[in-house]
């Protein structure tokens, strides 16, 4: 079994696609459908990688990144923003908030795992 990955995503279809691709690649997948649940699961399970949607119902992904980075999460944990926000400056805003990388939606199933792993390996 590869690393444990927490997906924080409120959209059922996106959650299904991400978890399917990751499970097929032998990752252990944890799921959270909002920010508060994501923070709780992250601190209880200490996943190696966390995929964070930016648009969530209770708090945005920038706030989640910031809270994870400043509340005892291991520095080795890789945070990746996975978002449909693709405007100029969004990548920089995610990195400033504490994300290690940024992937745009819609994801491409054929390349998603390689893109994610390249962010993890570059860290």
Labels describing this entry:
single chain; 123 residues; Rossmann fold; five-stranded parallel sheet; 5 strands; 46% helix; CheY-like_superfamily; Response regulator; phosphoprotein; Bact_response_regulator
Topology, number of strands: 5
- Which CATH class? Alpha Beta
How is the biggest beta sheet arranged?
Answer: 5 strands, parallel
- Shape call: globular
What is the CATH superfamily? Response regulator
Backbone CA Rg:
13 Å
Look up the CATH topology: Rossmann fold
Number of domains: 1
The fraction of residues assigned to DSSP E strands is 15-25%
Give the N-to-C terminal Cα separation. Answer: 21 Å
Order of helices and strands: EHEHEHEHEH
Low-confidence stretches: none
Question: How many individual helices?
Answer: 5
Keywords: Phosphoprotein
Domain Response regulatory: 4-120
Modified residues (4-aspartylphosphate): 53
InterPro entries: Bact_response_regulator, CheY-like_superfamily, Sig_transdc_resp-reg_receiver
Report what the structure shows.
With 123 residues, this protein is of the alpha/beta class. The protein has one domain: Rossmann fold, CATH 3.40.50. Helices cover 46% and strands 20% of the residues. It contains 5 helices and 5 strands; from the N terminus they run βαβαβαβαβα. The protein is globular. The two termini are 21 Å apart. It comes from Postechiella marina. Residues 4-120 form the Response regulatory domain.
